[in-house]
Amino acid sequence: MGLHTLGMTDVLALTGDPSKVGDFPGATSVYDLSSFDLISLIRQFNEGLSYSGKPLGQKTNFSIAAAFNPNVRHLDKAVKRIEEKIECGAHYFLTQPLYSEKQIEDVYEATKHLPTPIYIGIMPLTSARNADFTSRSAGHTLSDDIRARMAACANDPVQSTKEGLAIAKALIDAAFDLFQGIYLITPFLRYDMTVELVRYIHEKKKERLAKKKGRFIMASLFEQLEKRKKKF
Fold first, then answer.
1. Could you report the per-residue pLDDT of 83-92, keeping only the tens digit for each?
2. Which domains are assigned to the chain?
3. CA angle (2, 6, 9) in 5-degree steps
4. How far apart are CA 42 and CA 88, in angstroms?
5. Closest CA to 168 of 184, 188, 151, 192
C-alpha cells in the first residue's frame, strides 16, 4: 500500500535472504507470506481487493516480477515453480545470473512453452577472485573453463575486465534472440562494465533492425518482379 501511495508500480516479489546473513545480528526473520503468497496478494491489490477479500476502494497497478533460478540440479522442478508463480499472478521473471551459453539454450528449451516473459540476468565477472567466489555462492554456476579464463589474467586488472566483458558479451549473444530481454547486474559498482554492455546490446539491436529492413526491401523487390512477370 505504501508503494502504491508513493506511485511505485514495479515490484519484484521474492523470499529474499535469511536475516542471519545481513548486517543486523539481532534481527529476526518474518515469514507471514511466501513469495507465492506475496504474488497472489499483489494480484489481489490490482483487482482492488484486500488480503481478506474486502474491497479497497481503488485498484493498484503493480507490474509483478518474480525470481527464477535456473542454476539448479533439476531444471524441470524450477520450471514447475515458475508455472505456479504464473498461476499466482506473476507478469514476468528475472533469472539469477547465468554464465553458460549451453545453459541459456537449455533454459530456453525448458521455458519456451510459457507465455510469460523471462529476462536473463547477466553480471560480468571482474576478476579471478570474483569468479572463484561466485562459483561457491548459492544460486550460481561457473564452468571450469570460465574460471580458467579469469584465472589466466589474475594479475592484470585491465585484462581481467576485458575477459569478464568478453564472457558477458558471449552470454548476451546466446540469449539475445531467444528471450524477451536481458537485464544487467552491475558488479561492485563497476558501472563502466555495465555501460560497455549497454552499448554492445544497442549495437546488436541496430544490426537486427538493419537486417529486418534489408529483408523487407528484398521482399518488396521480389514482389515487384513477380507483378511485372504477370503483366508480361
1. 999 999 999 9
2. 2-231 (3.20.20.220)
3. 90
4. 9
5. 184
- How does the average pLDDT of the chain come out, rounded? 89
Q: What is the pLDDT of residues 131-173, one digit of tens each?
A: 988 887 756 678 889 999 999 998 899 999 999 999 999 999 9
pLDDT of residue 211: 76
Supply the DSSP string of the chain, one letter for each residue: -HHHHTT--EEEE-----GGGSS-TT-----SS-HHHHHHHHHHHHTTB-TTS-B-SS----EEEEEE---SS-HHHHHHHHHHHHHHT--EEEEEE---HHHHHHHHHHHTT-SS-EEEEE----SHHHHHHHHHSTT----HHHHHHHHTTTT-HHHHHHHHHHHHHHHHHHHHTTSSEEEE--STT-HHHHHHHHHHHHHHHHHHHHHHHHHHHHHHHHHHHHHHHHH-
- Backbone φ and ψ of 2, nearest 5°: -65, -40
What is the pTM for the complete model shown?
Answer: 0.83
